Amino acid sequence: MRFGLTRMIFYLTLMLLAIGLTLVYSSSAGEALRELRSSHFKQIGTFASAPETPIAIQTLKILFKQVLATIIGIIAMLICYRIDYDKYKKWAFWLLLLSLVMLVFVFVPGIGVLINGARRWIRLGPIQFQPSEFAKLALIIVLAKKLSERAHALKSFVKGLLPHLAIVGVVLGLIAPEPDLGTCLVIGFITFVMFVVAGVPVKHLGFFMTAGVILAIIAVVVEPYRVRRVLVFLDPESDPLRSGYQLLQSLISVGSGGLFGVGLGQGPQKYLYMSEMRTDFIFSAICEELGLVGGTVIVLLYVLFVWLGYCVATRVSDLYACLLATGITTMIGGQALFHIVVVLGMAPTKGLTLPLISWGGSSLVVNLIAIGILLSVARVVETEFMAYSMPPRRGRPAPVTA
């Protein structure tokens, strides 16, 4: 236990951040080229080729934003690590209320920002933020608090499960119209895992799963573009130049990397064929430039993170802390899983980033705050372990265990 859970999670997080910054720099060159060509078009009315030096400068500007978010996130993580995790229980209601207010602001003209047909961001001066990222963490804290306090009542559907479903429903009801079905699916997955750990009866879990599937089907059917995504997922070549284009190019990127990849920064897909490669499809850039070996290493790092997080959850004696660690670990591990299966063509495209690696300040900062809380729980686990494993001093009785 000398090199304990806290240090392992911390150093693993730093490793993923370093990999993320490297890949953001590599995969942002194409986005920088498109931005420069767009500015050239506005100036001279034609898509002139941008010189190489401005592309490098523009790429560094993109990287600088991610570095700044990383620094802010690490500072926030260290602060949250030093705060006793039990204090978040006292702040749970206010954190949820704040997240709901920010989710409402998304739809307020002048504050909410429309990007690619979706209202998922708010802009306050120079700061642009995605409230749904914060809402995920706030919901985890609230569910951990409520489920631990009402563990005795969970066998009752009306008194035990329904109030928690109502809280989740309010959050999903504000996120779904943005629209952001991907985040809704992640929240649903987190909620299900926390319900399982809290001891919700199987029949209630079955109801939750059935209701979730029905709502997901309704959400898909009512939006024609989502129906097209499902059809394209089943047959990507049915619309190779429109709905199926991004998925096909992602599969080409993954396949062209081979065993060891084409080399870091050498992948051509980001320049000519794929947009949003630094965010929703960064795992395809990993496979293209680092190959099957690099992609496998990334997957194993996330598997290790999930294993360490669940080790924290299973070793802590407090149910609230257990649920808190479970929710945070599931949030990061679950979103990584969804991102990877989408990139590999195993699920319809949903627009989810790869935690700690993809470009995006909101997701990065919130994930690091969440990891700071997880580290706070891990610190307690190590303290309890040391208290019961060290031999008692002479003249003092040994600790009594149940």
Automatic annotation (TrEMBL):
Phylogenetic lineage: Bacteria, Candidatus Sumerlaeota, Candidatus Sumerlaeia, Candidatus Sumerlaeales, Candidatus Sumerlaeaceae
Example of a GO biological process term: peptidoglycan biosynthetic process
Protein name listed in UniProt: Probable peptidoglycan glycosyltransferase FtsW
Keyword flag Cell division: yes
NCBIfam families: ftsW
The EC number(s) this enzyme carries: 2.4.99.28
Reaction catalysis annotation: [GlcNAc-(1->4)-Mur2Ac(oyl-L-Ala-gamma-D-Glu-L-Lys-D-Ala-D-Ala)](n)-di-trans,octa-cis-undecaprenyl diphosphate + beta-D-GlcNAc-(1->4)-Mur2Ac(oyl-L-Ala-gamma-D-Glu-L-Lys-D-Ala-D-Ala)-di-trans,octa-cis-undecaprenyl diphosphate = [GlcNAc-(1->4)-Mur2Ac(oyl-L-Ala-gamma-D-Glu-L-Lys-D-Ala-D-Ala)](n+1)-di-trans,octa-cis-undecaprenyl diphosphate + di-trans,octa-cis-undecaprenyl diphosphate + H(+)
Localization per record: Cell membrane
Keywords: Cell cycle, Cell division, Cell membrane, Cell shape, Cell wall biogenesis/degradation, Glycosyltransferase, Membrane, Peptidoglycan synthesis, Transferase, Transmembrane, Transmembrane helix
Pathway membership: Cell wall biogenesis; peptidoglycan biosynthesis
